[in-house]
Amino acid sequence: MSVINVGVIGASGYTGLELVKILINHPKFTLAYVANSEGETTIDKLHPSLQGVCNLEVQKADIEACASSCELVFLALPHKTAMAYVKPLIAKGVKVVDLSADYRLPQDIYEEFYTPHTDPQNLEHVVYGLPEMYREELKSAKLVANPGCFPTSALLGLLPFMDKRVENTPIIIDAKTGVSGAGKKLSDVTHFVNVNDNLFAYNPLMHRHAPEIAQKLGVDFDEVNFVPHLIPLTRGMISSIYIQVSQDFDASSVLKEFYKDEPFVRISENPVDMKNVAGTNFCDLYVKQKGNILFISSAIDNLMRGASSQAVVNANIMMGLCQKDGIPNIAYVP
């Protein structure tokens, strides 16, 4: 197979950097186009960690230039901004993996929690990019909505047990994430003095990732009780999930059977931690049952499995490649 030219629009942020790091070492993809809102620099000047590794020109984002250079493009852009690129790129025959929230939800739910949608036509045939749920659909997809980091962590933990959950009982998700999940833009919440030596919840019960979780689980929004917390770490995510189940069963065996053919989900016999998944696409899962209460612990790297590496897995599947091509699988633990 010949090389496949791909691009990244939104190379300035943390997820953009992780995409570039994966793609410059990918065996089948060639990173042919890198862009942000300003251009006129190189990727190693934008991200000094790439000095001596990659010095690709960073262009000012342009639809025509991207479409003439790439078969597939990754959009690492904020919501609302992304959909302005998706519509013309799809029209020009470029496949798109969108890392924003713009195509993850039906129009009415999206507009309730985000902003008016300007591309409802493409919402009709988008594929949600959680490979464990939609692998077959991804094979023929032209547009993929890459899941959010919190939904990825929660969904992978919950999916194997939804048929054992007592209907209409609360789903409780207590999630903790590193500060990189908030992006590069500085705010009072992410200011060093506020985050350092601190831990706090934000948008409890009303965070806009909750409807994404509910919608993919097929339950009402009111059933999902999602509380995210910001912790003083750069990256990583742990979700502690609690549901009520109707029967006694071997929860670990259920997990192992459900994910037996999934290379990026690992079942642990001990409580999971963030270090073992740092820098990888793995999701580590642990379960414990006490009576009719099931505890599920899910660990991912929020920038990788929660964004960039999952996006490349989706692109691999879309382009007919092995899903593991180019995907980092060794955690950088001391």
UniProtKB/TrEMBL annotation:
EC number(s) for this protein? 1.2.1.38
Q: A GO biological process this protein is involved in?
A: L-arginine biosynthetic process
May I ask which residue range the UniProt record assigns to the signal sequence? none
Instruction: Name a Pfam family for this protein.
Output: Semialdhyde_dhC_1
Kindly state which reaction or reactions the protein catalyses. Answer: N-acetyl-L-glutamate 5-semialdehyde + phosphate + NADP(+) = N-acetyl-L-glutamyl 5-phosphate + NADPH + H(+)
Q: Which key words tag this protein in UniProt?
A: Amino-acid biosynthesis, Arginine biosynthesis, Cytoplasm, NADP, Oxidoreductase
| GO CC annotation terms, alphabetical | cytoplasm
Identify the InterPro entries for this entry.
AGPR, AGPR_AS, AGPR_dimerisation_dom, AGPR_type-1, NAD(P)-bd_dom_sf, Semialdehyde_DH_NAD-bd
Q: Does the keyword Kinase apply?
A: no
Main location, first listed in the record: cytoplasm
Q: Which Gene3D superfamilies match?
A: Dihydrodipicolinate Reductase, domain 2, NAD(P)-binding Rossmann-like Domain
The chain positions of domain Semialdehyde dehydrogenase NAD-binding read: 5-141
Write down the CDD domains for this protein, in alphabetical order.
AGPR_1_C (cd23934), AGPR_1_N (cd17895)
Q: Where is the active site?
A: C149
Enzyme kind, highest EC tier: oxidoreductase
Which superkingdom? Bacteria
Similarity annotation: Belongs to the NAGSA dehydrogenase family. Type 1 subfamily.
Q: What is this protein called?
A: N-acetyl-gamma-glutamyl-phosphate reductase
Q: Which organism is it from?
A: Sulfurimonas gotlandica (strain DSM 19862 / JCM 16533 / GD1)
Q: Which gene is the coding source of this polypeptide chain? A: argC
